[in-house]
């Protein structure tokens, strides 16, 4: 499947939009400290992983029940299993953001996820292209992205060192609790590995899209069937963990706190941004050709990282940092912009 110029341009644009949504969805967490982590995360998961997939699949897929019946059993099982595994990565990510902040958490998660999530789909979808021009361009763009992410991570380490002795008597606004840096990094490493499973599952379940197309649906509609399976599987893991925390911390009552309307609005916004990013990415990938998941995934993640770091700056995560940290972060973001250009160019080589 070779994308036309207009479809290719739209696919790249949609991948970037998905990245913008992905990079901003954690920003509301900075202002939800009145709730416990499980209050925020459970509502977020219900919106993004249960309600949105059901509504969008019902609205876009014709013959929905038949599409599931006709889908290859192997693809359905892979999508559900990978979604369930990704669910644990989502838990780790949410805990990691609470522990070490938006900028650093996104940096380390995306460092691992972008590398595994872009290279492995090539091996799944078209291993013969790995050493051809397009495959080499994807690898090069991913390597450039990893270099940029390393610079951003180094800047985050310097920031953490410089702010270690800076205290504040103000109440913590970020939902959840701060943890030692090494704990936050371990959470983010686990999240990055399992986040890559999300794209691998999508890449391995392409037979669902083809089955949906045979029933007259678009590739976008077929992607929505995959997301419905994967996100529902991920929601199970997340909601079970949140239920455990609700019981342990007796935090159910916080939903009934007075003046909580803003907390509901911000949490639902989180769900809409992250859920929307998933479906926009699902619309982008088919427009980028046979290796769409290998191209669109790192492009979306790198854009998300740029946006997340900008959100971290807006939220004041770098306000006490020194010149060295800011310089390293600036260099890292410049390198990431080069990676975006390289990955976008790779899509034209199909």
Can I get a quick summary?
The protein has 350 residues and is mainly α. Helix content is 77%, strand content 0%. The radius of gyration is 20 Å and the shape is globular.
Kindly describe this structure.
The chain is mainly α and 350 residues long. The protein has one domain. It has twelve helices and no strands. It has helices spanning 5-24, 37-60, 64-70, 73-100, 102-125, 133-162, 181-204, 206-214, 219-249, 261-284, 292-314, 323-346. Helix 1 (5-24) packs antiparallel against helix 10 (261-284), helix 5 packs antiparallel against helix 6 (133-162) and helix 5 (102-125) runs antiparallel to helix 11. The protein is globular, with a radius of gyration of 20 Å.
- Overall mean pLDDT stands at 82
Secondary structural class: mainly alpha
- Summed up, the helix count is 12
Order of helices and strands: HHHHHHHHHHHH
Name the shape in a single word.
Answer: globular
Task: Give the SSE layout.
Layout lengths: L4 H20 L12 H24 L3 H7 L2 H28 L1 H24 L7 H30 L18 H24 L1 H9 L4 H31 L11 H24 L7 H23 L8 H24 L4
Question: What descriptors fit this protein?
Answer:
about 350 residues, mainly alpha, 12 helices
